[in-house]
Design brief:
globular; rotamase; about 5% helix; two-stranded antiparallel ribbon; 1 helix; mainly beta; PPIase_dom_sf; 9 strands
């Protein structure tokens, strides 16, 4: 089953905040919560195998500890191209997993081509997490339930799940808003 981050009959994926990262990989926590220096509270972000190889599908381990209560982003590769805005249409390769057990619920890599969609048509955590990202980059997004699918089950995603994505920004189209 393909779980594309969109609203419609179900729920949309809307990815991360308009944060423009211009340096080495950094971890940010959106919103002003108290967090550890790495932005994750008492949790440890999942390990990403193949983090720097944009030509291959990465794998994501399960999270450790209590999942972050706010959106967390970490650039694994900082891009150098066009910057995504919250209303951009983007082309991305991604892998989505559950924080609790690392189980993959969707991956554009498995379909052999990037997914293309407007960021204002996806879950808030996806929109906020990709906004500010530069083309050619790879970013980890940790999305709390409130910015994902909330308390409702969504196909292979149990209600109340914290989601973990590794997203490669392949391209950005201008917004028509």
């Amino acid at each position: 089953m393909t779980v594309v981050p969109r609203l419609g009959r179900g729920v949309r994926f809307v990815i991360l905040s308009a944060v423009l990262l211009a340096a080495l990989p950094v971890t940010l926590a959106a919103c002003g919560s108290s967090t550890a220096p790495d932005g994750t509270g008492d949790s440890q972000l999942p390990t990403v195998t193949g983090a720097g190889d944009l030509s291959a599908k990465p794998t994501i381990a399960a999270g450790a500890g209590t999942p972050p209560a706010t959106l967390v982003t970490r650039d694994l590769v900082v891009g150098t191209g066009a910057v995504a805005s919250p209303t951009s249409t983007v082309s991305v390769q991604y892998v989505g997993t559950l924080w609790a057990n690392g189980k993959e619920f969707d991956a554009s890599w498995d379909r052999g081509q990037p997914s293309i969609f407007p960021l204002d048509g996806v879950i808030p955590g996806f929109q906020q997490g990709i906004a500010g990202m530069k083309t050619g980059g790879r970013r980890t997004l940790v999305i709390p339930p409130e910015l994902g699918y909330g308390a409702a089950d969504q196909g292979p995603i149990p209600g109340g799940s914290t989601l973990v994505f590794v997203v490669d920004l392949v391209g950005v189209q201008a917004s028509d808003h």
